[in-house]
Amino acid sequence: MHRNRISRPALAVAGVLVAGSAAACGGGGTEASSKGEDGPVRVMMFAAQSYRLPVMMAEQEGFFEKRGIEIDITEQPANLQGMQGLDATKSDVGQVTVGTLGQGWQAGSKGAFFCGGIDVLQTTLMAPKGSELPSAEEGATWQQVLKSLKGKKVGIQTPVGSGLQKIFAAALEEAGVEDVTYVNLGGGSSAAIAALGKGSVDVAQVNPTGTQHILNAKSGKPLLYMPDGPKAYKDYYGSGWVAPTRFLEERPEKAKAFCAAVEEALAFIKAPENRKSSVAMLEKDTGVDKPVAELVLDQAYGDYSTKLDKGRLDATFDSYVELGILKGSPKPTFDTLVKPQG
User: Fold this and answer.
1) Is residue 47 a contact partner of residue 59, using CB atoms and an 8 Å limit?
2) Cβ 32 vs Cβ 110: under 8 Å
3) Which one of 87, 138, 261, 337 is CB 3.0 to 4.6 Å from 30, fit for a cystine?
4) Count of structural domains within the chain
5) What SS3 state is found at 127?
6) Residue 5, in any domain of the structure
7) Can you give the residue ranges of the SsuA/THI5-like domain (predicted)?
């Protein structure tokens, strides 16, 4: 995996709306519109999210064009489960979490991961400025950080009972903590930032670019980057590029070329000599100020990779069944839900 250990405490969920869509189950057979092998590839993404950068840079730098791909970007509906969103927008490609893919498949959606996205769920716990809660930056272990949440109000990004909430509860259980009060703040950053500012929660889950807004303004205290701690975050896969089955069967060369272009874009983004253009694109596409964009670039992309690891994904599917996020039947596995095209 591509890791940037220096940035760990500052990181959070990249494009939490992608992850947040794991809160609901999909339905109906997801299918892309029929455009023919030479038609544009429609890419569904949430607006103003940091996970868009590889696609936007691939388009700007001609990585799609040189592979014979024309892309058509459409906004992902916020009120639909990710697999449902693909169907509703007649899209060929989108990025969803393991939970979202599995729930949609078990509800009848026909799709699969074909290209890697983010290796982990990039969640950071943030406390209000001046909080006395222990933090990893101050030398606390992840167990000490999570144990300190006993009896506290925790701002979460999806409702109680959702996949992401169950994952967080499993992480707390690893540290021996059950007694917390959950406050659903929603998937956007603004509510979490406001709640931390008012002190209405003791800790909140935050995501890029909200994490970087807080760090740049010095208005909060990062406690723990969750993939550095409990196995519920450290050992399990985050989100990947998904496509309807028909797209993968009818346009496999386009799927393979899309993944290759994204891989080239990730290398471009991580190269120091391309920093200026990458920061400029983040500013333009997400609407953040330059200092925030620079923090996002430094902190958010170390966990991005187009690779799809079978062992990690199967372990994630198995764990999600144990947690009740996915059903045991039909059984979600790498072989049924992952069709690598890279």
Assistant:
1) no
2) no
3) 87
4) 2
5) strand
6) no
7) 51-270
Give 332-342 pLDDT, tens digit per residue. 999 999 999 96
Residue with tokens 């990181």: 11
* Beta-ladder partners of 242: 94, 113
Count of beta carbons in the 10 Å neighbourhood of residue 203: 27
Torsion 150-152-158-160 (CA) sign? positive
Express each pLDDT in 233-262 by its tens digit. Answer: 999 999 999 999 999 999 999 999 999 999
Beta strands in 172-329 (DSSP E): 181-184, 203-206, 220-225, 239-244
Please give the Cα distance from 339 to 191 (Å, whole number): 37
Domain of 285 in residue numbering reads as 14-120+236-337
Supply 86's token pair. 């693909």
Rounded to two decimals, the pTM is 0.85
**Cα first-last separation, the chain:** 16
Name the domain boundary from 173, 205, 234.
234
Among 196, 217, 234, the domain boundary falls at 234
